[in-house]
Write a structure and sequence with these properties.
Layout lengths: L6 H9 L9 E3 L2 E4 L7 E4 L9 E2 L4 E2 L11 H12 L3 E5 L6 H11 L7 E5 L5 H12 E2 L3 E2 L2 H8 L5 E5 L5 H10 L4 E6 L9 E5 L5 H12 L6 H13 L4 H12 L18 H6 L3 H12 L7 H8 L4 H10 L3 E3 L4 E3 L3 H6 L9 H12 L6 H6 L1 H13 L3 H18 L2 H17 L3 H17 L3 H18 L2 H11 L14 E3 L8 E3 L19 H8 L5 H5 L22 H4 L15 H5 L10 H7 L10 H35 L47 E5 L4 E8 L2 E7 L5 E9 L2 E9 L9 E11 L5 E11 L11 E6 L2
Parallel strand pairs: 1-9, 5-7, 6-11, 6-12, 7-10, 10-11
Antiparallel strand pairs: 1-2, 2-3, 4-8, 13-14, 15-16, 17-18, 17-24, 18-19, 19-20, 20-21, 21-22, 22-23, 23-24
Length: 813
């Protein structure tokens, strides 16, 4: 483990993946081999092939030391008291109030010499990615992301304190992260209060007191504030700033940089307008670096990139100076601009915009360099995301494709599936706008692989089928083989056999006829209420932003998608889909709905999808045999129905994309010598969501949660009663006739509870030897679950759990 004094070494330990970052990685029970050209492949591991993670002796990853926050003794004691009681803490308040400073200080001062602790920055990162961070901090297991069930098992019993900065999470997301380390204590910091009272204590931070404000100003000025007039000015500044440390820091910086050298504090009325005077006092290199950070909005950037892009010789010292002025924040991986600096810098004239082409080319080349490891790319994923967004807004979708295509393989190898999904969802619409069919096939393929690895196998089936068709059209046999091989592991059911949809190959080489049972009307667009296709997963499966013309490209050769009335059929209401803003919740789509209407397993006498693809260009003549007919039918079910869903989603998505394209970019699409066309460009932050991950199914609500009666594989039955806030209770009786009420908590599809373990060998059966943790993981279909019992703690090393076991539960209707 790195020492507290070696920041560089600590940072490297934080981000590196053990082993060869370019080799295969393991996610759950699957081996993933990343291919940057033809799409990744995935295989199922045989029993015993999964890694055996080795527990680190101790976890102690402290944050960088910064200045001691003044006036926070009471807040610090409140955190310490809550941690002693085993409670979760959430610090919340507006930007600039000092949440990060207090959190970092608490991590250093409230951690004993032998205590295990971990500091994480959650800015723009999904809870699942942070859970992987926690696992890698606790275990040595290069290139391995355990399943959620295995993660809970591996993290059980690790009693560490986890400090999470910039945790802008909902209550459900907080629980997801806490459930990943059930015995850890958490301290979160964010702008809003979201922690439920049953989960812990939310403490709002207010501005510091007057005495602390005087001390802060004196510290920043480098001298005491003793003059009566200056004390009055300082007191007025404190009152006007509402005790906000960031504003007081800037006031002192303006005085310290006063050209007259007198270090006169600014007037209280100027507290809200301190940024322009600070900008005026910056030298050229500092202003260029700040402008770069503002261009990248809320992304953090390592000093090495800041130096290369802003042409600054000593970026570390320069950025440290910006942080001391209250213009930038120092993070574990680099620096990001303070929130309110972006709009203030926007109106500053004379700044040369950064060349968009240079930004995109730089990051694309860096992401593919052999010396750049996968974790470093994941650490800078937000910067890559912002650059790609700017490229699309500026009409350079080709540059967005370049960036995302370069970063995708490394993000896959990093095993941070949340941020990988965000970039893929950004890359596919860009590829469609750029008319880059090879990139379309690649992004669709990788989306399918990611959905498969994260449990959304029904959506994965659709995406992989679409990718296979596109690879085939491009003549890329390796891509076809990779997609077909992955399809072996996704749900495949027979096409409808009720005559509602038939495919008739033509003998004249024309497009097959797609008709209803009467032969009169073309196949209608799948309806959200009847098709069984979850509209949220449909949006993910078609990867937002696909227009009807590109939808046609998903059809196989010889198939005319227009016969299915793609453009004229009524589109389902996607309002609720597009309002989702929390992708990556990990709640899988019901594979029993979406897959049954999109991907068909070949009926008897037919062929599977790989054979269908091999035969899609033949078999339409008069001499076509039964195998070719079956192949074309299987391909039609996949390609045409998927294309219908693509088309109806595209209408609304393209309108949204058109609206976004009106935003004025903050970078130049030509050269850095040109000025801003608009003196007041708009800094936007479009969010590409993946609603399929939310688990919402408006067509056929699946059973969720634990409530109800479950039969067990050992012949018994368990009844769970919902107690509110994601909590379920059940009564259990052990071998000693001790009755215990277990309270299961969790979210999505994982719930756990801890109960006493009694000494059943004794006469009284009342001696408690420890605790047993019971974890229930509900399968994606919602009807079955795995229950695992394991020892959570014991009074000594001689105690063993004789009743711990694993059983299967089946939900009773």
């Amino acid at each position: 483990m790195a020492s507290d004094d070696d920041d560089n070494e600590r940072t490297e330990n934080r981000i590196d993946i053990d082993g060869d970052a370019a080799g295969p990685v393991i996610a759950g029970n699957h081996n993933l081999v990343v291919d940057a050209q033809h799409g990744s492949t995935v295989t199922v591991l045989m029993q015993g092939q999964r890694p055996r993670p080795k527990r680190h002796d101790r976890v102690r990853l402290l944050p960088r030391r910064q200045g001691v926050p003044l006036g926070r003794d009471a807040d610090l004691e409140s955190i310490a008291s809550a941690l002693r009681d085993g409670s979760t803490v959430q610090l919340w308040g507006p930007p600039g109030v000092g949440k990060s400073a207090l959190l970092r200080h608490a991590a250093h001062t409230l951690t004993g010499e032998r205590d295990e602790m971990l500091f994480l920055d959650a800015a723009r990162r999904e809870p699942e990615d942070l859970a992987q961070d926690m696992f890698e901090a606790c275990y040595e297991a290069g290139g391995y992301a355990p399943s959620r069930t295995d993660l809970c098992r591996l993290m059980a019993g690790i009693e560490m304190t986890v400090y999470v900065d910039n945790a802008e999470y909902t209550a459900e997301q907080l629980r997801t992260l806490m459930d990943a380390a059930p015995d850890a204590k958490f301290v979160f910091a964010g702008r809003e209060s979201s922690l439920l009272g049953t989960d812990g204590t939310a403490r709002r931070l207010h501005g510091i007191g007057r005495a602390a404000a005087m001390e802060l100003l004196a510290r920043e000025l480098g001298r005491p504030v003793t003059d009566a007039a200056e004390q009055a000015t300082a007191a007025a500044l404190w009152e006007t700033a509402s005790g906000m440390p960031l504003l007081l820091l800037r006031a002192a910086a303006v005085a310290r940089l006063d050209p007259s050298g007198e270090a006169v504090l600014p007037k209280p009325g100027r507290v809200e307008a301190l940024l322009p005077p600070l900008f005026d006092r910056l030298d050229g290199p500092s202003l260029r670096a700040l402008h770069l950070l503002a261009t990248l909005d809320d992304a953090e950037l390592a000093p090495v990139h800041i130096g290369a892009l802003s042409e600054t010789s000593d970026p570390s010292s320069l950025c440290e100076g910006l942080a001391e002025l209250g213009l930038a924040q120092e993070t574990e991986r680099g620096y990001r601009v303070e929130t309110d600096v972006v709009p203030a810098l926007r109106g500053l004239g004379g700044l040369q915009p950064y060349s968009l082409e240079r930004l995109c080319t730089y990051f694309a080349q860096w992401a593919t360099q052999p010396t750049t490891n996968a974790a470093q790319v994941a650490d800078h994923a937000r910067a890559l995301e912002v650059v790609a967004e700017l490229a699309e807004q500026s009409g350079r979708a080709d540059l967005a494709v370049q960036v995302v295509r370069a970063a995708s393989p490394a993000l896959a190898r990093s095993l941070r599936f949340g941020v990988w999904g965000r970039l893929l969802d950004q890359g596919l619409p860009a590829a469609q706008r750029a008319d880059d069919r090879q990139a379309q096939a690649y992004f669709r393929h990788e989306q399918g692989i990611r959905k498969f690895l994260t449990g959304n196998r029904a959506v994965a089936a659709v995406l992989l089928a679409e990718a296979a068709v596109l690879w085939r059209q491009l003549g890329d046999t390796q891509g076809v083989d990779a997609a077909s091989a992955a399809q072996q592991h996704v749900p495949q059911q027979a096409p409808p056999s009720d005559g509602s949809s038939t495919v008739s190959p033509q003998t004249d080489g024309s497009a097959p006829d797609v008709s209803g049972s009467s032969g009169a009307d073309p196949t209608p667009v799948p309806d959200a209420s009847s098709s069984g296709v979850d509209p949220t997963s449909a949006q993910s499966a078609t990867s937002q932003g696909l227009d009807p013309t590109s939808a046609q490209s998903a059809a196989p050769p010889g198939v005319d998608p227009t016969s299915a009335h793609v453009a004229s059929s009524p589109a389902p209401d996607l309002t609720s889909v597009q309002s989702a803003t929390t992708p990556g919740t990990g709640m899988p789509v019901d594979p029993g709905t979406a897959a049954s209407h999109v991907v068909g397993a070949p009926p008897p006498g037919s062929v599977d999808i790989s054979s269908a693809l091999a035969s899609s260009g033949t078999g339409t003549g008069a001499g076509a045999g039964a195998a070719s007919t079956g192949a074309l039918a299987a391909l039609k079910v996949i390609a045409v129905i998927a294309a219908l869903v693509i088309g109806v989603v595209a209408i609304d998505q393209n309108q949204d994309s058109t609206d976004r394209s009106t935003d004025t970019p903050v970078v130049s699409t030509t050269s850095p010598d040109e000025g801003f066309d608009d003196p007041d460009p708009v800094y936007t932050d479009p969010v590409y969501t993946d609603p399929a991950d939310t688990g919402l199914d408006e067509t056929e609500p699946a059973e969720t949660g634990l409530a109800g009666v479950w039969s067990s594989s050992d012949g018994g039955a368990i009844e769970f009663v919902e107690a509110g806030f994601g909590t379920y209770t059940t009564e259990t009786v052990d071998g000693c006739d001790n009755s215990t009420t277990l309270e299961f908590t969790g979210s999505g599809d994982i719930y756990s509870a801890t109960g006493p373990m009694y000494n059943e060998s004794g006469d009284s059966c009342e001696e408690t030897l420890g605790e047993v943790r019971t974890t229930i993981t509900i399968d994606p279909d919602g009807t079955t679950a795995d229950l695992t019992m394991e020892m959570a703690s014991a009074i000594d090393d001689t105690v063993t759990c004789t009743t711990c076991r694993s059983i299967t539960l089946t939900r009773e209707s």
